[in-house]
Amino acid sequence: MKTRGILADKLQISGRKSVNILVCDDDREIVEAVDIYLTQEGYDVFKAYDGQQALDIIKNNDIQLLIIDVMMPVLDGIHTVLELRKTSSIPVIMLSAKTEDTDKILGLNVGADDYLPKPFNPLELVARVKSQLRRYTKLGTLAEDGSDIFSVGGLSINDTDKTVTVDGEAVKLTPIEYNILLLLVKNAGKVFSINQIYESIWNEDAIGADNTVAVHIRHIREKIEINPKEPKYLKVVWGVGYKVEKQ
Fold it and tell me: What is the average pLDDT across 154-175?
């Protein structure tokens, strides 16, 4: 079920914790191809061929990132991610032969962090994996006073342990949601355009960014606001962008 690479072995020998990535696709040739590229980069690769297998592997292993296809037998990618998000916020990169914006939005809506249409360049997938893992493990920076806690009213972000609370209640965010909220909270009162948010978080040109950012903003509001339709913290500035309101 698991494939180890030479670089992964070196990482463990040196005492560094290995990074486990689960690749799930009913096309075994795609799984094997992705496995080769990820193993060369030093990652430990787990393999699954339907969504139920993927959930079982995640339940019984310490998985740091999931790459999953949309169309699969037994349990498809959409329903797998929906189930995963009940208990886990690990990064998810969704693969699909469908390239319509509606399919991409659906994937993001159910909790995927990134979306890559098939056929894809394996090197681009590896780059996206690295980017998602950086966000998941090394988000944010220290505040100027040396503190790593950023607060606006009852909303608080502890950037050491990557936790978010609202009025003392813990809130579970995906890595992308966390990074967007951290950006806005650290710059409370400042308005960021959609393109600025996208380029800051995804580190790439903001092509077709509107829907992607809007979906994540909506998810954040649903998690941190009492009434997402009348947000207390995360505000839209019509025609300009978004900001976290100073309290």
Answer: 88
Asked whether the whole model's pTM tops 0.70, one would answer: no
Q: 126 with 8, same domain?
A: yes
What is the mean pLDDT of the segment spanning 63-72? 94
Task: Please list the residues that pair with 114 across neighbouring strands.
Answer: 93
Please tell me whether residue 75 adopts helix, strand or coil conformation.
coil
- Domain-ending residue, one of 93, 115, 137: 137
> Which percentage of the chain shows pLDDT scores above 70?
85
The side-by-side arrangement of strands in the sheet containing 163-166 is 149-152, 155-158, 163-166, 169-171
Q: What is the CATH number for 173?
A: 1.10.10.10
What value, to the nearest 5°, has the Cα angle with vertex 174 and ends 90 and 126? 55
For residues 55 and 82, membership in a common domain is answered with: yes
Digit-coded pLDDT (tens) for 209-231: 678 888 999 999 999 999 988 99
Helices (H), 61-206: 77-84, 101-109, 122-137, 175-186, 194-202
C-alpha of 158 from chain center: 18
| Number of domains into which the chain is organized | 2
- Asked if residues 188 and 153 have their Cβ atoms less than 8 Å apart, the reply is no
Q: Cα separations (Å) of 142 from 14, 56, 147?
A: 28, 37, 6
Residue 144 domain flag: no
Q: Could you tell me the CATH number of the domain that includes residue 68?
A: 3.40.50.2300
Range of the domain at 62: 2-137
Strands annotated E in 141-238: 149-152, 155-158, 163-166, 169-171, 234-237
